[in-house]
Amino acid sequence: MTSSMAVTLGDVATFIRGITFKPEDVVQVGTENSIACLRTKNVQAELDLSDVWAVDSSLVRRTNQYLQEGDILISSANSWNLVGKCSWIPVLPWKTSFGGFVSVLRANPEKIFPRFLFWWFSSARIQAMARSFGNKTTSISNLNVDRCLALPLELPSLDEQKRISNIMDESQLLKGCRITSEEQLDDLFQSVFLNLFEMEGSGTWPVLTMAEIASKEAGSIRTGPFGSQLLVSEFVEQGVAVLGIDNAVSNEFSWGGRRYITQEKYTELKRYTVRPGDFLVTIMGTCGRCAVVPDDIPLAINTKHLCCISLDGNKCLPVYLHAFFLRHPMAKQYLMQKSKGAIMSGLNMGLIKDMPVILPPLEIQQQLSEKLKLIKSLKKSHRSYLEQLDSLFASLQHRAFRGEL
Questions:
Q1: Cβ within 8 Å of residue 265, ≥6 positions away
Q2: What CATH number did the domain enclosing 197 receive?
Q3: Are 83 and 166 found together in one domain?
Q4: What residues have CB less than 8 Å from 190, skipping those under 6 apart?
Q5: Taking CA atoms, which of 28, 121, 173, 215 is between 20 and 30 Å from 285?
């Protein structure tokens, strides 16, 4: 274990409170005699500068209220779960201060390396402690600065602090590269799909309704059991699975909270059976999300919160329909026009049946589906790596501040 010195946060850093101003004091960045002013909205995992306010520079009463590189901007008056959230301040493009609902934690660089302080304060343990210190007033929690300043900290030498900070930075950089790669894969997915409609002859492809591409079997477009047909009290710990909004809300099929009914209850409700390749659309709660039922689905039914569509495999492939529903401008426009309310609360089975779908030849759908499946597989691998990196990063932070790195 690396030798270290026991200090408190107050021994090595200072909290600085932000400036106060009124809504009418806010001006555009760049206005004469103004300074940029950061607020709680800007405090994200990385400092968000997409929406920055400005105020007259006369509102800054003390020079230490100007931000400088290496400061840690902290949400100090917010909902309980966000108090203590922090961002590292890099070199900023403007002279900048900060508002009254955020505070700055400023390191004494002769005693603590600022980046080391950031990684320490942003660690899960310290974040949890900072939240627990909050003084609640109505729905707002306020950071208890005095209790935070009393937090104990095992402080290695400055050289050791820099070494640990470099390890944490490199780990974060690797994580960022993975996130960027996943975003690029999503852009590729969109490009591959939309390029399909620039093919020669694509303008002659037929437009069919969802009802016309569904299987001709009775009940090929269906919602789940309503009312007393299925009560929450009838769910059991194991049996036949019951699918709901949580299984499709991420626009990919996933298992959320597991729900089951008995085999006897299933006998009553088997007309709501969900099959591999069925297309699910959420029609209550968070509406307009969709997913394709995987091939390894166990015996299951859907609830009234989902519309389940069994497709005619000679007309439309599930992977193609999933991409069309989410990414084609025609689908987006239809859902926007037909839905009622900002959260698409008006979706119903009738609207879904009438939704138009451009239908390429099956061979072209198949080629597209193979490409999209490959991209999805790569994205899944990236997510798995990111989860591993998150675990590794949390472990590194934990070990770093126990002197074990």
A1: 230, 234, 239, 240
A2: 1.10.287
A3: no
A4: 327
A5: 215
d(CA 117, CA 115): 5
For residue 60, which of 91, 96, 29, 87 has the smallest C-alpha distance? 96
192 lies in the same domain as 310: no
Tell me the C-alpha to C-alpha distance, in Å, between residue 378 and each of 158, 194, 332, 374.
41, 19, 26, 6
Q: In this structure, are 301 and 377 located in the same domain?
A: no
Total count of domains within the chain: 3
Domain that holds residue 247: 206-359
The two three-digit tokens of residue 190, written as one number? 């969109």
Query: Hey, what amino acid is at 80?
Result: W
In angstroms, rounded to a whole number, what is the distance separating the alpha carbons of residues 302 and 247?
Answer: 10
Specify whether 311 is located in the same domain as 189: no
Q: How many CB atoms lie within 10 A of CB 199?
A: 11
Q: What is the pLDDT of residues 182-227, one digit of tens each?
A: 788 888 888 888 888 888 888 899 999 999 999 999 889 999 998 8
Q: What is the pLDDT of residues 360-387, one digit of tens each?
A: 999 999 999 999 888 888 878 877 777 7
Scanning 227-361, the segments in alpha helix (DSSP H) are: 263-269, 318-327, 329-338, 349-354
**Based on the domain organization, do 100 and 185 belong to the same domain?**
no
Cα four-point dihedral sign 56, 60, 64, 70: negative
- Please, which pLDDT band fits residue 404 given cuts at 50, 70 and 90? low
Write out pLDDT tens, residues 115-169: 999 999 999 899 999 999 887 766 788 999 999 999 999 899 999 999 989 988 8
Q: CA 183 to CA 181: how far, in whole Å?
A: 5
Three-state DSSP state, 192: helix
Domain match, 39 and 73 both? yes
* CATH of residue 288: 3.90.220.20
Amino acid type, 343: I
- List strands edge to edge, sheet with 221-223: 221-223, 306-309, 279-282, 290-292
Burial 170-182 (b: 16+ CB within 10 A, else e): ebbeebeebeeeb
**What values do phi and psi take at 220, rounded to 5?**
-70, -25
